[in-house]
Amino acid sequence: MSLEMSPCHSVSVSEPHLINRLRPYQRGIALAVLDSVFGKKGLTFSVEMARQAGKNELSAQLEILLLTLYMAEPQNMVKCSPTFKPQTVISMVRLKDRLDDAGFNGIWTAELGYIIRLGSARVIFLSADESANVVGNTAHVLLEIDESQDVSKEKYTKEFKPMGATTNVTTVHYGTTWDDSTLLEEVKQTNLELERKDGIKRHFRYDWEEVARYNADYLAYVEAERERLGEAHPLFLTQYRLLPIHGGGGFLTSLHRSQLQGNHSRRHQPEPGKTYVAGIDLAGEAEEEEGARLRALKPRQDSTVVTIGELDFSICDPSLKGKQPGVKIVEHYWWTGRKHTELYTQLVDILKNVWKCKRVVVDSTGVGEPVASFLKHSLGSRVMPFTFTQPSKSELGFSLLAAINSGRLKMYRGEGSDEFQEFWFEMEKAKSQYRPSQTMNFYVDPSQGHDDFMMSLALLVEAASQYSPRGARGSQ
Fold it and tell me: Helix 390-405 vs helix 216-229: angle between axes, to the nearest 10 degrees?
């Protein structure tokens, strides 16, 4: 296939340049991009590829070829990523390594910490962070938007897209899907509409099954992720199946709640030879100070909840890295209207003397910090403080969904207690909200109640994930 570069010369995009280094699904993307570049068509492409499918390698190989072909001309390529560290830095390192592999070691140069030059041609690497100052750069040959689903639409429209206005630059948006409000999704929908009108392919989509056809190791890896996360987990849906999430809604589906139901009995004391962990969600002090009348007046008022779980190692092979034990919820403790200081000694007794918990994850956010410090002083390294931030809570929610999806987490069967009823009330009322950068929030609407049992449950799952049996690598 011969693609025109300029009126005076052309290039054959065939062996041994780009094609031999790419898999078939990458090859079609590369040829379409190069056809637009050399034909000065100025097309905009959207490329959705499953996680770890090779989009960064595709990008680096395109950059090497174009640097080589334009090295005698003062031409720029621009590539942006949502953050400079680590994403932009990773892209720069990859290009440097591939240039060395191609025999350009000692020939290419780095400038100003964000430019790679080969002869007169350059790749300029920029951050698409909201605060990054990128105005003034020009993209002559190619404009690449990495992880486009995490780049602000406003930032792209106002500051990056104009970089190619005077050069009719070819633009490529790479990423994995998230929700239906992202920049990548917007470009994708525009491209699909244009394809229907003129038949020119602008959108490329390759999910994990397509990638696995060419890589047996990748097949094994993703199948393990599917088992760990569950087929319907938001991260598996978006990063591997490339199916967008539509808005938010209920956090746990009816299927999730069915999977969470267990057949074991609630227990008020441990069984010999069993291993126990705990998750603790703490009430806000302001509400505690209203006194013990709160539960009677407002049955779902903010409370301190301790959830005790028994670890089930029968479902995991300790030799398998990342394989986590099952967790049976066996006991709940629930206090409303009790100051943290009044609970100190009782908490220590329950965790240390009654259940002999091997791991305890406790909410250390805000007023919880003194409680976490006290427990850590009393119980030592088995206590792990957890500070709630947007990213950390998001990870906690994804881990909770994974534990439920995989069947590793089970609630004791019904026994008519207030704790049992409140637990299931929160599981039913819990909502989710999906945010940019593959993050989420999960909560119970304050107008309907609180989420103490749910947060304590999520912290319990975290405690289970942090425990390693004696003799295993990274043991306590």
Answer: 90
Residue numbers of the domain that contains 273: 248-465
Read off the pLDDT of each residue in 328-332 and give the average, rounded to a whole number: 98
Cβ–Cβ < 8 Å for 173, 187: yes
- What CA–CA distance (Å, rounded) separates 110 from 96? 9
What pLDDT is stored for residue 246 in this prediction?
72
What's the mean per-residue pLDDT of the chain?
88
CATH number at residue 172: 3.40.50.300
Burial class (CB in 10 A: 0-12, 13-18, 19+), 309: buried
Strand arrangement, sheet containing 326-335: 383-386, 359-363, 276-281, 304-312, 326-335, 409-410
Least Cα distance to 130 among 65, 82, 183 occurs for 82
- What is the per-residue pLDDT for 292? 43
Residue 140 lies in a domain: yes
Give the dihedral of Cα atoms 435, 436, 439, 440; nearest 10 deg: 0
Q: Name the domain count of the chain.
A: 2
Over residues 200-212, the mean pLDDT reads 96
Please indicate, yes or no, whether residues 262 and 379 belong to a single structural domain of this protein. yes
The verdict on residue 470 lying in a domain is: no
Greatest CA separation for the chain: 86
pLDDT 10s digits, 99-157: 999 999 999 999 999 999 999 999 999 999 999 999 999 999 999 999 999 999 999 99
In a domain, 241, yes or no: no
Residue-level pLDDT at 14: 39
Q: How much is the average pLDDT of 256-263?
A: 95
The pLDDT value given to residue 247: 60
